Amino acid sequence: MIKNIVILGIQWGDEGKGKIVDLLSKKSNLVVRYQGGNNAGHTLLVDGEKTILHLIPSCVLYKNVIAVLGNNVVVSLKDLLSEIKLLKNKKIFIKNRLILSHSLSLIFDYHISLDKVREGKNIKQSIGTTNKGIGPVYEDKIARRAIRISDLYDISYFKKLLKKNVDYYNFQLFHFGHKEKVSYKKILDKSIFQFNQVKHMIHDVSDLLNYKIQNQEKIIFEGAQGSLLDIDHGTYPYVSSSNSTIGGVFTGTGIGIKKIDYILGVTKVYSTRVGNGPFPTEVYDDIDNYFSTIGKEFGSTTGRKRRTGWLDLVLLKRMININSLSGLCLTKLDVLDNLEEIKICVKYLNKLTQKEFSYYPSSKKDWENVIPVYKIFRGWKDCTQGLKDFKKLPKNAKKYIDFIKKFTNISIDLISTGPERDQIIFINHDLKNFISNKN
Ligand code: GDP
Ligand code: IMO
Ligand code: MG
Fold first, then answer.
1. pLDDT band for position 430 (50/70/90)?
2. Helix (H, G, I), strand (E, B), or coil: what is residue 296?
3. pLDDT tens, 24-38?
4. What are φ and ψ of residue 208, in 5° steps?
5. Phi, psi at residue 21, to the nearest 5°?
6. Which of 139, 232, 332, 372 has the most beta carbons within 10 angstroms of its beta carbon?
7. DSSP string, 230-270
């Protein structure tokens, strides 16, 4: 029986993880975010009511499920408190069922300022970050100067750390031409005030999770971003700054690899990415308009238009391996409903050498010279939205899905046919059972 599941994105984020975590967490005991920060935007849609979560795990709509932020989640206390308040306004009360790891690193205003000035005005040359301070805070962590939430228990120690960091950031900001100095005093006062509001949520998350697992409780580990944005395995340097592939679960929570029963990779049946960086199957003009409009491809965090493209099986296969996936969840099948033809990338061609290849391009030059080689499918021109039974899918949709399954050699366990929670086809019965009983 499946007890503990990881749900992670295997493209460049926004695959629909939030919807799937919401769906599968109905009878879970805990849902745990293990990396990233409020650069994420996870959308839940239930009976027409939309909830967008940035930091808090996607289980908030179930009153009995505990939400946890692990040690590698980076947190702006100001934004966390705003998110809690926004939820409260929607009558979703999370304050007493949210747990924060004692060793998570904090995002301060100076991280955000540095993120912004470094991205600068030359949008084309930049990474295209979400401007939430993610890069700078992870840099601090690796450089061993980050401020962890538990550092605020000892105010005099916190003061020392903060002073050192504010000086360091003022130096950096000055270098980038940022006129205004960051005020140590303002940050100090605000941080203490914010800390007092969340103090009761702080725990040793590793201890807690290991105890819960021992007690046979059901846990979902919710990924943020996507595997192609992973700091090690993604399209570097156009990535985020954490490990969004499977390893991040273990380093980001303090549980061991043997505790996971099932790993679900979520992918759209086409592709999108926000921000800059390689995207071999990117499309423009009419098809881009189609995906943007029908797929509503605008970022949930920044509102930016997402770049769009066809599904890339070279990249998908790589991420299936890296994450050692148990199964796939395909999302947004309904978005393809009105297309005459659907392309799927099965290998690449090097523009310079004219040689075909099927591996992950490694250098800048490789990426620049990649041309996708497509297999073309006839569209189904029929409505799949809301279908819940695989047998009812149009013949050409089944053919398309079957091809993905055979090519990647992995089972397709879930298919999402719309943004609403119940617009889903369960293929794997163990996953269906996962939401039918607690423990
Ligand atoms: P996440 O970051 O992976 O959680 O994904 P986002 O929430 O940023 O973006 C996914 C978007 O697609 C959201 O607006 C969802 O409501 C929507 N969505 C999820 N699954 C489906 C689906 O199967 N069909 C359609 N049409 N929309 C979907
Ligand atoms: P979810 O969890 C899509 C992208 C940014 C940028 C790059 C680095 O909703 O799938 P950062 O602010 O992290 O330093 O930006 O990563 N990015 C995302 N793209 N979905 C996300 O999260 C993302 N989180 C970061 O657009 O290209
Ligand atoms: Mg998103």
1. very high
2. coil
3. 999 999 999 999 999
4. -60, -50
5. -65, -45
6. 332
7. -TTTSSTTSS-SS--STHHHHHTT---GGG--EEEEEEESS
**CB-count burial class (<10 Å; 0-12, 13-18, 19+) for 237:** exposed
* Residues paired with residue 305 on neighbouring β-strands, in sequence order: 298
Active-site residue flag, 42:
yes
Nearest-angstrom CA–CA distance, 41 and 299: 8
- Give, using CA atoms, the residue closest to atom 23 of ligand 2: 225
- According to DSSP H, which parts of 199-235 are helical? 205-214
Portion of the chain with pLDDT greater than 90, in percent: 95
Pocket mutation for ligand 2, best pick of 130, 131, 227, 235 (most atoms within 8 Å of C-beta): 130
Which domains are seen in the chain, by residue range?
A: 4-94+204-434 (3.40.440.10), 105-200 (1.10.300.10)
Q: Kindly report the pTM of this predicted structure.
A: 0.98
> Is beta strand 412-416 parallel, antiparallel or unpaired with respect to 327-331?
parallel
The protein residue with its alpha carbon nearest to ligand 1, atom 21, reads: 419
User: Tokens at residue 259, please?
Assistant: 């505790």
